[in-house]
Amino acid sequence: MIPWLVQPHRTEPKILEWAERYSERAYLDIVRLRNHTAYALTVTDRSRPDEAKKKSLFAVPHAHEPAGTAACMNILGELLDGCDLAGNPTALDREAMLASTLLTFIPDANPEGRSRAPVEMWDGSRFTNDEFLKYAFGIDGATGERFKRVDRWSAREERPSRIGIVYERIDETTYVEPNRDWGSSFFRLAHRLMDRWPYDQFIDLHQTEFENSPYNCMIILPVSWRTLPEPICAYSRAWADDITRAWGEMDGASPHQPEVLGYTGQQRAYFEERWGRLHSLCPIITTEIQNNNPRTPPDLQRQLQETALRISIERISASA
């Protein structure tokens, strides 16, 4: 069994160890907010010029969706240590990949929220989806119902009886949802990295419940799909299809075909405003892997995310 490294007290020392031990193969970027630090670890052969390399960014914004973190940490181990976190030798051609590509991982963009999670993984055995979502988004102090989903809120104005782990505290009173607010560690790291390096692809690693659905994995295409340049759309579609086919060959996987994000109203407005510039810079797709359901146990959640990472790395390495 491959260990899950998802809690900040375990991921942080490992990331710092890798950055120090493999300084010839790693760049480290950080964002410090109050009592936590979010990390981006970029791996490549630093003896070769970065300009000619193909580049990919992988990120996990949400604290209640830990399988992407487990996958990123395991793949980083394979790329740097040459073995997975259980000590099994990697099948990746890591020397060739590191020579021709530059791969950036943000394994956990909200360690402050993740540190408040009651469990390391959501397997569907302890919490109903309603209970799970009350941990994710919190509980309204006045109604006892699930707290609202907004880009940011202030503790001066709101009094939730439970603060959802999806929210990141960025100052004394302000909380934000990472992939909906530019003040988050996630966007601060993503903007810094994308201004530094022209990435060829960016995969945003997420989970959802797929409640009452026969599916347990899916690729989401950008909400702004119809306004994107044709080369970005063509690349994204082929990339999404590659991952979906690979999922279809896995035991326990029931992939939905790729679809454009269907948000409307305020949620759509968040994405159009916050993500519009990034979507115009390179192909960006989103994984959605089933969370908090016995049908998709944690090890399968991790494997589905890892498969998306492996296909993405192999795809970009082959084009280098």
Q: How many structurally independent domains?
A: 1
- N-to-C order of helices and strands: HEEEHHEHHEEEEEHEEHEHEH
Report the principal-axis shape.
Answer: globular
Spatial order of the strands forming the largest sheet:
1-2-4-3-10-13-11-12
| Count of separate DSSP helical elements | 9
Give a short account of the largest sheet.
Answer: 8 strands, mixed
**Quaternary organisation of the protein chains:** single chain
Approximately how much beta-strand content do the residues carry? 15-25%
Radius of gyration over all CA atoms, rounded: 19 Å
CATH architecture: 3-Layer(aba) Sandwich
CATH superfamily: Zn peptidases
Name of the CATH class = Alpha Beta
Describe the protein in words.
It is a single chain. With 320 residues, the chain is α/β, with parallel strands linked by helices. The chain has one domain (8-114, 179-318): Zn peptidases (Aminopeptidase, 3-Layer(aba) Sandwich). It has helices spanning 8-21, 67-81, 94-100, 111-114, 129-137, 185-196, 230-248, 265-281, 298-318; strands at 26-33, 36-43, 54-59, 101-106, 138-139, 152-154, 162-163, 168-169, 174-176, 201-208, 217-221, 259-260, 284-290. An 8-stranded mixed beta sheet has the order 1-2-4-3-10-13-11-12, sandwiched between helices. A hairpin with a 4-residue loop joins β8 and β9 (174-176). The two termini are 33 Å apart. The relative contact order is 0.17.
